[in-house]
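sorry to bug you again but im stuck and you know this stuff better than me. theres a chain ive been looking at and ive put its sequence and its fold in token form underneath. id like you to explain what the token line says about the fold, in plain words if possible. anything you notice is useful, everything is just below.
___
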Amino acid sequence: MSSIQNTLLKALYERYFDDPTFLSLHSFREENNIDDEVFWDEVEGLEDQKLISAYAIGGAYILNTAGVLFVEENKLADSVQIEQHQQARTQILNRLMWQYETNGKHAPYFYEDLARDLSMDTNYLVTHLRMLDVMGFIEAHALGGLFLITSVGRRSVLEWRAKMNIRQMYLDAHSLSAQKRGKALERIITELAKHEGWNLESNVITRGEELDLVLVKNHAYYLVECKWHKNPIEAKDIRDFYGKLAHRTHYRGLFISMSGFTSGAREHIKSYISHHPIVCFGPRDVEALIQTTIALDNLVEQRYRRLTTQRQLEYE
């Protein structure tokens, strides 16, 4: 996207939840002192992508649902505004899910009752209802003003609840002892992985009563170690972990440390790259996974590629 398109999308996003929802692009172009031909070429590009649409004659345009989602996914607008609107849609879906679970799948919710129960402005609610309808999360009942949550919407709510459960597990883990925090972190990573479609490999018990965690996806096997200590991980911890890896052909390592790694530990990891690569995550990586700003798949793949092709050991 060009800077002109980003600026225009931001302005249309801010207007989308107001009344009127449209924006006069003639006025917008003049206020931003943009060349006429260049500007309308940029507008046409956004129309071609189905992000915006002409609302009426005279240069009035509105943002489409795809445009709203594009702005939010790419963080083109104010982060506080984006979070507010996303939370509103979550509240609506959660309430419609409650209606489904309480009164059955054929019990619709009247929009004015929904606005009252959520303490939400009616016009603001209706704007989000239209969005959720286009997205397939809800459907309008045959009788006007009534809405039902769809199977797609129900799956979305169940996913949201699972994420909230993982976040609560993470918050609760901070008050545990170091040993219990490590096991709690392992459970959190397990839940995140299962949520993203990873499989758990059954493994033999090692070192007394400790059961190894192995995650599998796309024929890639990762032996996982989770530590939540006060001090950074040392070289001995890496040697012990590599000793477990060495007995498993074609396995990769994933070492997650909430306290980072010493220089000696990092050097050991680099020395093992040609045999059993060990991908590392730090505390900010875990936070990003918990907040779902990045998927486990993507983070593992990024770190593995840089480790094996550029010999760069990264973690945050």
Observations:
- The chain has 13 helices and 13 strands.
- The two ends are 29 Å apart (CA to CA).
- The CA atoms of residues 97 and 231 lie 44 Å apart.
- The mean pLDDT is 91.
